[in-house]
Amino acid sequence: MSATPDDIPHDYDMSGSLWMRLVDASSMSVFFFFEYLLARDVYLHLDATSSGLATWLLPLALVLGYITADFVSGFVHFLADNIGSTRTPFFGPVFIRPFREHHVDPLAITRHDFLEVNGANCLISLPVLIGTWYFVPIHGTASLFFAAYIGLFLFGIFLTNQFHSWAHHPNPSAWIRRLQRTGLILGPEHHARHHTPPFNTYYCITSGWLNPILARTRLFERLKEPLRRVLEPIAGKADEVGGVQE
Fold first, then answer.
1. Which residues of 176-191 are buried (b: 16+ CB within 10 A; e: fewer)?
2. What's the rounded Cα separation, in Å, for the pair 77 and 69?
3. Among 47, 48, 244, 72, which Cα is nearest to 154's?
4. Phi/psi at 84 (5° precision)
5. Which of 27, 42, 135, 157 has the lowest tally of Cβ within 10 angstroms?
6. What is the distance between the alpha carbons of residues 132 and 129, in angstroms, rounded to a whole number?
7. How many C-beta atoms surround the C-beta of residue 74 within 10 A?
8. Do 224 and 215 form a contact (C-beta atoms < 8 A)?
9. What's the confidence (pLDDT) of residue 2?
10. How many Å apart are CA 94 and CA 244, to the nearest integer?
11. What is the per-residue pLDDT for 124?
12. So which domain of life are we looking at (predicted)?
């Protein structure tokens, strides 16, 4: 049995509601405020270090942060596709349902505006972002690198759903297509591998760099049963909306 758009439980769709838009807008505002504070602290302390340190520290933090964002995007995508119910209070409609719906209607993400596409990622990033800024003050090279890494990693998480949306857009701008062709961001041809039934591979949706490695090692498939046993009592049994079959 395969799901169709009419099978999606629209009574659990919170997208477009005034309350959800307020959550998205406030989350995004707070996210950028603390990203600014963290970036300011990094800049001020970087300015006091040697130029040689600055030459390698920020590029390394950027690359590692971006790779981590790609892995986390895949892990969260894997969890949302395979574990939990769309009817779990708050978490189901906000985080799980969009992933399940996406297999039924891949273009749905392109019909949401910037706030809807990116607000949830801002919300889930806030505890790590605020915690890093508040509890890990910069006082040396290690803490400076960590702050830069976390800031860039979370900015990659922020961009993930936007890159995912562009990968499904039927007619993206020329500059977006150029970025996709370079492989710096998720491209439509690469992401099409995930949308081939049974939708159980190529979960990473920031750059997709890690997808071939994760597919070859079958890491997520190996984690599925242990995680299901732990998380299903909390998140509920996975429903089929979006083509995920149990």
1. beebbeeeebbbeebb
2. 12
3. 72
4. 100, 155
5. 135
6. 5
7. 24
8. no
9. 37
10. 18
11. 95
12. Bacteria
Instruction: Give the pair of three-digit tokens for residue 17.
Output: 């509601």
CA dihedral over 107, 93, 196, 218, signed as positive or negative = positive
Pseudo-torsion of CA 180, 161, 77, 143, nearest 10°? Answer: 90
Quote the pLDDT of residue 88. 85
What's residue 61's pLDDT? 96
pLDDT < 70: residue spans in the chain: 1-16, 50-51, 240-246
Question: How far apart, in Å, are the Cα atoms of 18 and each of 1, 11, 24, 58, 116?
Answer: 35, 15, 10, 39, 11
Whole-angstrom Cα distance, residue 239 to residue 229? 16
Identify the pLDDT of residue 35.
Answer: 98
CA distance 225 to 60: 35
